[in-house]
Amino acid sequence: MADIALAPRRAKTEIREATAWDQLRHNKNWLGFWFMLPAMAFLIFFLAYPLGLGVWLSFTDTRIGRVGHFIGTENYEWLWDDSIFWLSVFNTLLYTSIASAVKFAVGLYLALLLNERMPFKALLRAAVLIPFIVPTVLSALAFWWIFDSQFSIISWSLKQLGLITQNINFLGDTTWARICVIFANIWRGVPFVAITLLAGLQTVQPSLYEAATLDGASRWQMFRFITYPLLTPIIAVVMTFSVLFTFTDFQLIWAMTRGGPVNATHLMATLSYQRAIIAGQLGEGAAISSAMIPFLLAAIMVSWFGLQRRKWQQGENND
Amino acid sequence: MTDLPAQKVDLKSILSTSARVDNSEGMSYLQSVPRRIVTLYIPLSIIVIILLFPFYWMGLTAIKPDDQLLDLDKYNPFWTWNPTFKHIHKLLFESYYPHWLWNTMYVAIGATVLSIIASVLAAYAIVRLRYKGANVVGGLIFLAYLVPPSILFIPLATVVFQYGLFDSPMALILTYPTILIPFSTWLLMGYFKTIPFELEECALIDGASRWQILIKIVLPLAIPGLISAFIFCFTLCWNEFIYALTFLQSTPNKTVPVAIVNEFVDGDIYRWGSLMAGALCGSLPLVILYAFFVEHYVSAMTGAVKE
Q1: What sign does the CA torsion over A57, A62, A67, A70 have?
Q2: Residues of A in contact with B40 (CB under 8 A)
């Protein structure tokens, strides 16, 4: 403030016409452009361009170390007849649908539990979020050890309880392997769903519940007719994210099973990595990952309509 | 008539410990203690135990001697009486682990700082400059948030190779912002909207430029948002796997998650101790960071979803 008071001379400079340089410095649109430049540069060079390049690569026969030529839809025709590809699509859909459904149910339940008043609430809430903080690969390794074929703590406990006589071959059996990776994914995803839904729950007015209690509503009715409708918009967004990131999951599978046994846990992402980077068939791998795009678009549409509905519910445009 | 409910509250608050903690709160007196145990404490503790057990197991394995790890009959596997630091010692002094930790840190901080700078500028421009098409750009950035790394890594690998960045940390520092910028821009837009516009108007009248307003007024007020964005981006970087797996080749250059999966997983039956020690040491920095900034974390997670 003091500097401004001491230097009045600048105000006396003559007023001149706005030059092009001034325009660049002060015009709202140009300023906006300069401010957006770094973010846009990153997003265009490393996101939009590769996205387009990926679709283009899927129409070529590029390999690692060799520039590809346009071969039309040959990669896709090849995949159409590839049973492993269809198995991976099936696995991905199974993985996504079961994991998302359970994540939603358990996450909502956990959010409702954490919304109750109880001692050590903040501590519990913090503890619940830890699986989300720890890098996925590292917790996947812990699960790998928990599901070890010989020294699994689960097998040991069940044997001690007398429920089984032999170790369960968790990651070696196709059904068990699927169950294990889905469980690990749910374990990792529940905290995210629970904490975000909890934030939504905390915005619900307690007076609504008081009114419902006076009207004689049961706890289920209170959930069904107050909590759930008010939460719908945030549920839509959270579940879109959850579905999206489960669908494109890579790390968990790669750390636990690498797609085995006999491709039973191969997701589209892991298959595309295997084909593109390990086998070197960049074109084919790109075709597999491009095949994920329609599913992602569907998820984005759901998110979009979820957001629209929220605005409609609040009765105004709240940007 | 009016005395009756008040008496009831007092009676219950003596019985129920939770009500004693804050007996000001409305409706918890309607639930009896046994009911709360069955509907609240038991399910909650089961879920929390399942959520935390892998970490207990990770930590326990990291400090157990090798013979106890594999002999489940002689020793109770759930506890150990003679912990050893052999695995952690081996990790820190006989492997590249410190290198990997340093790489991860370097990449995470580099990418986070770049992303935060870019996002602060972008978010400010979208929220406050309101240039032509600002809303469309905001929507596009939200869409970019929804593009997952697993459909980008193949074309990005060719891009990285063309730019000569293959097997260098710069490849990660430049590609991670594509994940971080959309998220942190969206988060910071929410924070910037809460700063009163009048403050900026005053500054404009006093002759401040947009740049000065951003540096001297908006950023100091948005510090909680910046912390949230920073630690969340840092965590995402630390967690990132597929880019690091694809773009890095040589052992000393790897980041912790990739290195542990690729270098420690071998045929050795005694690998579990060092593997879990590696996982533990790779998680601890994040957990410590998290412990200090729980509230910022939660607001980052929920803020980005709510906006």
Answers
A1: negative
A2: 113, 116, 118
Annotate B222-267 with three-state secondary structure.
Answer: CHHHHHHHHHHHHHHHHHCCHHHHHHCCCHHHCCHHHHHHHHCCCC
Per-residue pLDDT tens for A58-105? 998 888 877 888 888 888 998 899 999 999 999 999 999 999 999 999
Nearest Cβ partner for A126 among B17, B156, B294: B294
| Chain pair A-B, CB pairs under 8 angstroms | 297
For residue B270, the model assigns a pLDDT of: 62
Tens-digit pLDDT profile for residues B42-80? 999 999 999 999 999 999 988 888 777 777 777 777 887
B215 touches chain A (CB under 8 A): no
ipTM above 0.95, yes or no: no
**Shortest distance, CA B179 to any CA of chain A (angstroms):** 9
pLDDT in tens, A241-264: 888 889 989 999 998 888 878 888
Identify which of B69, B122, B154 has the shortest CB distance to residue A54.
Answer: B154
Residue found under tokens 């074109």: A283
Predicted model pTM: 0.85
Indicate left, alpha or beta for A65 from its phi (over 0: left) and psi (-120 to 50: alpha): left
d(CA B29, CA B88): 50
Asked if B287 reaches chain A (Cβ–Cβ under 8 Å), the answer is: yes
CB atoms within 10 A of CB A159: 16
